[in-house]
Amino acid sequence: DDLERLADEVERNGTVVAFTGAGISAPSGVPTFRGEGGVWERFDEGQFTYGRFRRDPAGFWEDRLELHEAMFGDGYEPNVAHDALATLGAAGYVDAIITQNTDGLHERALPANETNADEGWQNESGTDRDDETTLLELHGNAHRAVCTACGRRIDAEEAFDRVADGELPPTCDCGGTYKPDVVLFGEQLSGATLQRARTLARESDIFLAIGSSLVVEPAASLPRAASSTGATLGIVNLESTPCDDAAAVVRREDVTTALPRLQTLVLE
Ligand code: OAD
Q1: Which residue in the list 68, 82, 106, 139 is annotated as catalytic?
Q2: 264: confidence class by pLDDT, cuts 50, 70, 90
């Protein structure tokens, strides 16, 4: 079938780039932003914009603590789809993972002997892991906070602990204000990160869009950028996407069945 065709191409070992969205983490129990059970049913998304952060950092952080607990308070683990990409990456078949998610699950799904969660991973430019898999977190990582003055990054838990203790907003030793290390609504994606993603897309031989509605930028244009420069585009998503017409293979399938099967087809 068409997944076998895709696996054959992956096996031929060109440059494979996986591009992921909220759909890959939904089976891990991470609530989506929109749709049924989405956090914006319970929270006002207007309170979490970059403009609000600039105007009222204290109020922003107070609300952000509540949102963080609602989204991540129960804890969650990578699922078999994250694991399949990590395993294919470790075997040399996936060269880069570009994600729109801020949950850090791709990093945690890495093979245990290759994790370097404390220092090695950078959100700005992406970091090579043993020249095998590049992880590019397009929208940052909700488990970190960054000083808006000096750029120092700390564990988000530390920032949230300080917020819970009444430090509003949490402040860096340099005097700057910490911000969650994510791209907020109304905030520009870093140009370097975007450039890196575009280059990866154009240089890919196989571009797999996984669990993303592909409706917001840059997600909407990366798959087309890849296919227009000759890449084979594969899409795995429960719903149809605006890029389906450009894809060689479209799987209207759950990520937790499609990706383990792809892994098996490639590695066995
Ligand atoms: P969306 O919520 O727009 O799309 C998620 C897609 O995953 C939907 O089309 C679902 O059908 C699909 N899906 C859900 N569960 C799935 C499963 N188990 N298997 C396969 N597919 C599944 O999420 P994104 O495309 O990631 O930006 O959204 C893009 C960006 O919009 C987010 O990163 C966020 C938001 O504004 C920022 O926060 C800056």
Answers
A1: 139
A2: very high
What is the maximum alpha-carbon separation in the chain? 59
What span, in angstroms and rounded, lies between the C-alpha atoms of 105 and 83?
9
**Residue 82: active-site member:** no
Q: What is the pLDDT of residue 119?
A: 38
Phi, psi dihedral angles at 64 (to 5 degrees): -65, -35
Q: Which atom of ligand 1 is nearest to the CA of 187?
A: 39
Which residue spans within the chain are E strands per DSSP? 16-20, 96-99, 127-129, 133-137, 140-147, 153-155, 178-182, 206-210, 232-236, 249-251
pLDDT of residue 117: 41
pLDDT at 110: 60
List pocket residues of ligand 1, CB cut-off 6 Å: 21-23, 26-27, 32-34, 100, 139, 183, 211-213, 216, 219, 237-239, 254-255
pLDDT, tens digit (0-9, with 9 covering 90-100), for 140-149: 999 999 999 9
Length of the chain: 268
Three-class DSSP category at 130:
coil
Task: Compute the distance from residue 121 Cα to the ligand 1 centre, in Å.
Answer: 23
Helices (H), 141-254: 156-164, 191-203, 222-228
Q: Which two structure tokens, joined as six digits, stand for 14?
A: 């060109």
Q: Are the CB atoms for 78 and 111 separated by under 8 Å?
A: no
| Partners of residue 185 on adjacent β-strands | 49
Q: How far apart are CA 235 and CA 107, in angstroms?
A: 22
Write down the pTM of the prediction: 0.90
Distances (CA, A) of 90 to 44, 112, 163, 216: 40, 11, 38, 30
